[in-house]
Design a protein that fits this description.
The complex is a heterodimer. By secondary structure, chain A is an alpha+beta fold. Chain A has helices at 14-22, 53-57, 66-72, 83-98, 117-120, 123-141, 155-162, 178-182, 195-203, 209-214, 217-224, 226-235, 246-255, 279-299, 332-346, 374-393, and strands at 6-11, 31-34, 48-51, 77-80, 104-108, 111-115, 147-152, 170-172, 265-276, 302-313, 318-329, 353-365. Chain A has 3 domains: 1-177, Reverse transcriptase/Diguanylate cyclase domain (Alpha-Beta Plaits, 2-Layer Sandwich); 186-259, 5' to 3' exonuclease, C-terminal subdomain (DNA polymerase, domain 1); 266-420, Dna Ligase, domain 1 (2-Layer Sandwich). In chain A, the strands form 3 sheets. Chain A has a 5-stranded mixed beta sheet with strand order 5-6-1-7-8. Chain B is mainly beta. Classes of the chains: A alpha+beta, B mainly beta.
């Protein structure tokens, strides 16, 4: 593998720092950005999507429930997320990265990888680019939105380096220091080793990267299949994944036999404002979610063959079931009808429902066939007209009469934005 | 205090350095002099572009919305320190 130079850029406490930049009265205070703007002033049904640096110091963690976070930190300010704001900032900082190289991979809403091998030429050049990017971010957004930057010969090492110093770190791992650096990091710091895998590795007597390197790679492969090979190579600091520029991606797509791979599924789930037994209330949310899913299918020119319904009860137990459609479709009402028929079979009426989810799968590119019956043709024409209105005026431009008082609020998430789905 | 609203307002702005800088807002018959423009971001409502200005004076944070199609200003969020 030739020597490449990667930057990993991770915005620190991203959502929280954006809000602290926007609102100076939040600066220096422990704040937690919650999942969605809620009618519940205490926000007891939400989770912490991001905690500010001040909150993290006091023990507040991402994904903690809000009531738990307030118990740990009574002075914590719960602030509803603003996903449209974060999405715009994300697009803009990735546009800044594109000024330095076309080989940018947006890894999540607040992390990106840059391949700066050609632009930097060497480590000193990479450091200069990293510092310049830091200055550009400060100039564009203000001093409160900061980033930790890691520089390394592989994406994996660049990420490990960047995460070793937070906030506002700048860490470089030279090619001849790979092993000595990786040996200073705990296993769970490596992207790809989660808490369960970490526990499993410990149970096998593997506590450090040195332990993994000392393993027979055949044993790792037999135990973990291809993941075992990845584990062995990663423990050596190796990572063969590269970043394609958008030009290379378009050439690859044109030359490959399958030009487009649709997603495996499209879905929406929603935590209700309050736990409920009321089938009518559940029905309304299910219809709203089905319409959202259908819009995304039609927007992307997709049809679905299967629907899955998920319910979470107030005791946090789950139930779900799926079924095949009679024919492929992208109609919100038909998705709802199928999902509702599943719900009637699986819903335990003694339990309160906390969350409803609907997803569709077995997706492929296509459009619905022209319906035979007049009523279906009218609905199809209406859907087309409503799609045109939605594209022009946005998602809040129309709603069904039955959903006038049922509003799905956008959530803040670490990996995607609802309003961009 | 933290409130979400959608009140039409009058805004005095300056155009300088290729930026729009709100200087003064008039809301509920009271004037608020803007000390800092902290952040500007944009979103889309369908084809329409909406600009949001996160600004503050000495005690209040205001989120202002500019509808670029109708050139209308709204106060959409207010946070008062203390």
């Amino acid at each position: 593998m030739d020597n490449r130079i990667y930057l990993h850029i991770d915005m620190n406490s991203y959502f929280a720092s954006v809000e602290q930049q926007a609102n100076p009265f939040l600066r220096g205070k422990p704040i937690a950005i919650t999942g969605k703007h809620s009618d519940d002033p205490e926000q007891t049904r939400s989770v912490v999507t991001t905690a500010s640096i001040e909150a993290k110091r006091l023990g507040v963690k991402t994904a903690m429930s809000t009531w738990q976070a307030k118990r740990i930190c009574p002075s914590l300010i719960l602030y509803p997320g603003d996903p449209e704001k974060y999405a715009d900032i994300t697009h803009r900082f990735n546009a800044i990265f594109q000024e330095f190289t076309h080989n940018v991979h947006q890894f999540s809403v607040d992390e990106s990888f840059l391949d700066v091998t050609e632009q930097a030429k060497d480590s000193l050049g990479a450091l200069y680019i990293a510092q310049t990017i830091r200055e550009r971010l400060k100039e564009e957004y203000g001093a409160w939105i900061t980033a930790s930057i890691g520089i390394g010969p592989t994406k994996l090492m660049a990420k490990l380096a960047g995460e070793s110093v937070k906030p506002n770190g700048l860490t470089i791992v030279y090619p001849d220091e790979l092993l000595s650096f990786i040996d200073t990091r705990p296993l769970e710091d490596l992207c790809g080793i989660g808490p369960k895998m970490h526990q499993r590795l410990n149970e096998l007597g593997l506590f450090t990267f040195k332990d993994i390197r000392a393993c027979d790679p055949t044993y790792l492969q037999e135990t973990f299949n291809s993941y075992g090979i990845w584990l062995y190579e990663s423990a050596h600091g190796k990572d063969s994944s590269a970043i394609l520029s958008s030009l290379e991606k378009s050439v690859f797509t044109t030359n490959s036999s399958s030009t487009y791979a649709p997603p495996k599924s499209v879905g929406h789930s929603y935590t209700l404002p309050h736990d409920t037994h009321d089938p009518l209330e559940i029905k309304r949310y299910l219809l709203a979610l089905s319409d959202n899913v259908a819009w995304r299918l039609r927007r992307d020119g997709l049809l679905a063959r299967r629907v899955k319904l998920t319910l979470r009860y107030s005791d946090f137990t789950y139930t779900s079931q799926q079924k095949l459609f009679q024919e492929p479709l992208a109609d919100g009402y038909k998705i709802f009808q199928n999902a509702w028929s599943i719900l009637k079979q699986i819903y335990c009426a003694e339990e309160s429902v906390r969350l409803v989810g609907v997803s569709v799968s077995e997706l492929f590119q296509g459009s619905e066939q022209q319906p035979l019956f007049l009523e279906d043709r009218k609905r199809s024409a209406l859907t087309k007209a409503l799609d045109t209105i939605q594209r022009r005026y946005g998602s809040s431009s129309w709603t069904r009469a039955t959903l006038l008082h049922t509003k799905l609020k956008n959530r803040s998430s670490g990996f995607h934005f609802d309003h961009e789905q | 205090m933290h409130t979400f609203i959608h009140d039409p307002i009058d805004v005095t702005v300056s155009f300088s350095q290729n930026k729009i800088l709100p200087k003064l807002i008039r809301w509920n018959e009271r004037d608020y002099k803007i000390e800092t423009v902290n952040l500007v971001h944009t979103t889309r409502e369908g084809n329409k572009r909406i600009f949001y200005f996160s600004v503050s004076d000495l005690t209040n944070y205001f989120k202002l919305k500019l509808d670029s199609e109708y050139l209308e200003w709204y106060l959409v969020e207010l946070y008062t320190d203390g």
